Amino acid sequence: MPLSLSIQPFSGVLNMYGDADSSSKFSLSGHVSVSLTSPSSLFARGRTAMRILLQSLTITFEGQSETLSPETGYASIRLCSIPRELLPSDPVELSNEGHEDSDKPCLWNVTFDIPVPGWLPTTSVYGDASLQAAGTSYALYATATFVDINHGHSPFSFANICGPVRSRTRTVDAHRYPIILRRFVEPQPGSTSSMAQMSVYIVDARRAPDSDAPSRRSIPRDVLEKIQVVASIPSATAVNENSVPFILRVRGKDLDDSERTQLRITEFSVDVEQVEVYRKNSSRDGIDQYPIPSQSHQPPRVPLQNPHPIHTLYDTGFLGTFVSSVKRSFSLLAPTESGRYVISGGGHIFTEGQNPSSEDCWYILETKIPIFVEPYLRDWAGTRKRRLTEGSPLFSVEHHVHVVIHCEYDLADSGETILERLHFSLPMRHVNVPDVTVPSGNTMENRSEDVRKSLPSAQTLPAYSQLFHSNGERKLDYSLPLPLYEPPSASSTFGLGSDQQRSL
User: Can you list the pairs that 449-456 forms with residues at least 24 positions away whose Cβ atoms lie under 8 Å?
Assistant: First the structure.
């Protein structure tokens, strides 16, 4: 074929910054190379110049998500399909006249700029590890439609021989170009890559499920209700961090002296859990909340451009019935970590080292929870690796911190000690953080230019949604107070300070 296409984006990786937001867009730019070569002739010594009428040149950015598990089977969905016509309204004539005998084709580069929605999930691989990888993927596709208007001088050219059996309008496709989507959350000013800003939760600690057995005695409800718990964890944790700061504050409000003596907190345990949810496309509860194409543009009505090879087996419907969703959950604690922390002093935190009459006295437990960095276990979905906290129509990842507080209470009448467990859970976020190395103060001036070049593009060109509201108004941070008004000093004259007056 005389015409060929090649997709050349400026980068095969698109970095998105900030939380997933349907109102934000990120630019994916590049060009499509259109090559024109003359076909070989059977009898003529030279090649014939080619003339074509390029009627259409379309590039499409398409995203898809596929899940594959023993319980849910195969499911697929089109996340987005963004076509762009790169030609003006009228066809464009292309010719290689004067260069038909060259070994190099005539080349035209047509630029493109596609706005990619900011809500899209990142590129990832997940699903049944025993089969070819499924997951979330994105790619660029290009298609051209043209008419061969060449009137060759040689009637024996290969193109003229095949002319009667060819369609006048022809179509050519470019090779699929995969695009990787990554998402970064920038750290707060002054914080490190560990995202050290803490979120504080006032916790309603409840009895553990196994503590509600009617056959056993329990700590009086009015005593448990006087235990106040406040927990703090980072607002976001980088996926490459190997520990998570955790602060637990406990106090006994309105406990009388006898209750403070009888009640003890002997230990607490912490676990960090990752929950992966695999869904079928028939589970509308997890799909309707995303701005994906309508059902008329979803498979099997409109097949994916790059579907998983196994989709043909599941499309027949002969492989049985499957559930709508399945969960895969596991602990992120380091393999040598039990998550158990014993409180010294026998657990008498309500009487030792503090004034029992003080209502504002908190017992503070502060630690760092070790988390594994490299996966060390496997199951049906492959290695149990840490993932970003994000949601998508067919696959979502959640993270939780589960805390269990072990309480003991001595009954005054029988001397029996009652064991009780209180539990609560907190949501977590695991994110990617840009790796920016800031030089020390003594080398700041010499390396200012290098630092500027090493900063990610989002710090020099933030997303539109970070600067403006959807109606076009600029976003203002009203939490920053205006500077205080200071009246001019009595010694100033005509608005000039004393130092300035002396220099006149």
Answer: 456/15, 456/17, 456/184
